[in-house]
Amino acid sequence: MTTSTRGAAKVPAVLVLEDGRIFRGRAYGAVGETFGEAVFSTGMTGYQETLTDPSYHRQVVVMTAPHVGNTGVNDEDAESRRIWVSGYVVRDPARVPSSWRSRRTLDEELAAQGVVGISGVDTRALTRHLRERGAMRVGIFSGNALPDEGTMLAEVRQAPEMKGADLSAEVATKEAYVVPAQGEKKFTVAAVDLGIKGMTPYRMAERGIEVHVLPATATVDDVYAVDPDGVFFSNGPGDPATADHAVSVMRGVLERGTPLFGICFGNQILGRALGFGTYKLKYGHRGINQPVQDRTTGKVEVTAHNHGFAVDAPLDKVSDTPFGRVEVSHVCLNDNVVEGLQLLDRPAFSVQYHPEAAAGPHDAAYLFDRFVSLMEGQRA
Q1: pTM exceeds 0.85
Q2: Helix-strand-coil percent breakdown of the chain, rounded to 5?
Q3: Residue 124 pLDDT more than 50?
Q4: Which of 18, 27, 179, 325 is the most buried (most CB within 10 A)?
């Protein structure tokens, strides 16, 4: 990715999909070129959390909401140390942010972090195209001396695909760190960082959990060196089919019977650890308005999603695995994709979505309480 940051608002920009479709607009953020997988997010708000979610590493995010940037950028809502999206696509950028918490405009933040974007394109048409054709590679090119269309398309088609990408170690912490419990410490959890969002250990800390966040390269010995009451596997980017190390570590945890909770990528890792396959969704689930049914209670939750892969597990029966029986505990009501797994003979479960709810909604916060209950039961 090559970028500059001067005078982007009036600079021409072009978005080129790998199937040859082209959208023209204006530069937004940094000026230059960038490549990634084109995906769309259906959230009406929470763009700062989306941009800083490590799960979006190497993806170009198309915002379906037409007006983006209204609340600017603040210093409190980031989910990690930087913006991770490789490109950003909006229709109508806000001219002036209107939140008292804003410290700078979204355009300024994108430019400062070297994120190439494009504005003024028909994001509704682009989203419909991706729904029909599927997520695909894309390039954004901006500047006053753009390459010809054939050259841009050739460069897009040379970019790496998301299928087969092993990305967790690129976004995870390099050194272990501790998030202390709020108030009285009740439990210790080892959290394997595959691309963790900052709000996740905070949600656990709220419940009296001291969270030891470990690198994606952590071994089973590293996990148990913190003497955990429970083990957590986080969200993250890339293809779960490449995550052999994380799968091996999770199997080690399952063998010991330690309470286990996985989110998003962690759900896919649990699926693989149990012997299920994973597959790439046509265009994935991204946004904060996805309906999911908790099959253990029958309740429907509105949930936050960011995933392009899913677990291939049967919805209509309890499955036998090397670690006992398992059932699909949650399902997406839009397309019947597996959204959660629950072991019946060991204290372990996972969900495909993001119950830390940054940004919103909060329907699934009970899952952290369910994790606490498993650790309480194990201790008793």
Answers
A1: yes
A2: 25, 35, 40
A3: yes
A4: 27
